[in-house]
C-alpha cells in the first residue's frame, strides 16, 4: 500500500472516494461537484488530503483542515473526512491513513489532530484508541 499527499493530479481518484463517502452520509451522488470541491481545496491550500493506493487503485482517503488554538498559539488540524472502500477494510488501510495524518501533524510540530465520530461507531473508536487517540471528556461541543 502506498499513501500519498494528494495534489491536483490525484483529484480524479480522490473524487470517486469522496463521492462515495458523501453518499454514505446520505448525500446524493455528485462526482462533478466532488471534483470541483476537492480541486478548490487543494488549489487554495485549504486542506491536506492523503490518499491510499493498493495495487494501483485508490482505496481510501482522509482530508484535514487547518485550525488554530488561541490558548497554545499553535496550528492544529481537524480530521474531517476518513473513508476506506468496503473491499479495503480490515486490511490496515484506515490505520495506515491515520498514522500518515498523525505523522504529518507531528512532523510540522503542530498542536494536534482532532476528529469526531458518532457514539455508535465503535469499530472506528477502537482503531483510534489503538493509535493513541484519547476521547475528549473535558469539553462539551455544541452545534
Automatic annotation (TrEMBL):
This is N-acetyltransferase. The lineage of its organism: Bacteria, Pseudomonadati, Bacteroidota, Cytophagia, Cytophagales. Keywords: Acyltransferase, Transferase. The keyword NADP does not apply. It comes from Emticicia aquatilis. GO terms for molecular function: acyltransferase activity, transferring groups other than amino-acyl groups. The keyword Acyltransferase applies. InterPro entries: Acyl_CoA_acyltransferase (IPR016181), Bact_Acetyltransf (IPR050832), GNAT_dom (IPR000182). Residues 1-143 form the N-acetyltransferase domain.
Amino acid at each position: 500500500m502506498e499513501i500519498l499527499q494528494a495534489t491536483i493530479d490525484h483529484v480524479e481518484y480522490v473524487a470517486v472516494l469522496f463521492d462515495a463517502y458523501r453518499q454514505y452520509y446520505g448525500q446524493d451522488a455528485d462526482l462533478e461537484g466532488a471534483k470541483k470541491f476537492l480541486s478548490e481545496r487543494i488549489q487554495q491550500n485549504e486542506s491536506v488530503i492523503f490518499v491510499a493506493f493498493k495495487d494501483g487503485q485508490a482505496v481510501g482517503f482522509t482530508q484535514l483542515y487547518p485550525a488554530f488554538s488561541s490558548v497554545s498559539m499553535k496550528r492544529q488540524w481537524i480530521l474531517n473526512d476518513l473513508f476506506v472502500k468496503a473491499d479495503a477494510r480490515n486490511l490496515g488501510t484506515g490505520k495506515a491513513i491515520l498514522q500518515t495524518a498523525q505523522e504529518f501533524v507531528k512532523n510540522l510540530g503542530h498542536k494536534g489532530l482532532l476528529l469526531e465520530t458518532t457514539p455508535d461507531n465503535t469499530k472506528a473508536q477502537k482503531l483510534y484508541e489503538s493509535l493513541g487517540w484519547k476521547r475528549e471528556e473535558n469539553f462539551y461541543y455544541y452545534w
